Amino acid sequence: MTSRTPATTDGVAVTLGALREATDSLGAFIGQCYAAYPMPTVVVLGILAVLVLSRIATWVSTPRGRGIKDPTRMFTAAQRAEGFTRAGNRCEMEIMPFIRCRRPAHHGDHHIPWSKGGATSLDNFVAGCVTCNTSKGAKMPSAWSTMRLQGRRRRYFPDGLDVHAGRVFVQT
Prior knowledge:
elongated
């Protein structure tokens, strides 16, 4: 005859037998999941979960509903010239993750879109070709794409320049 000795954790008595039963049932449930769903399905569902969570994180970090926009919509000629020079007159956007576009830059774009509260300043300037800029539209960049842009900028920006990408307009 086995005796069930209660184990006390924070004043809660749990019998070892009940704990063993819960563990066994959890193991059986996991085994049923693996039996019911093939491994490629589990991988695809995991990737979809990561994409959905990334989209939610971007949505949460978007400055919306504030109604505050930079009164200056267009970059000045001096800002455009400086932005194109520091980018080497080449598009700074990606044609696919980790691959910088090779076309010449003709557009000065807001990294954080002006319509979503982005500032019209060199801190928010991204040199873009016609194709990349028009395909981007007013989409908010993800945290990952911003980090990749900043990593690329470390390679081609002149020494001493800030590689930070994106600035939200703050009314002073």
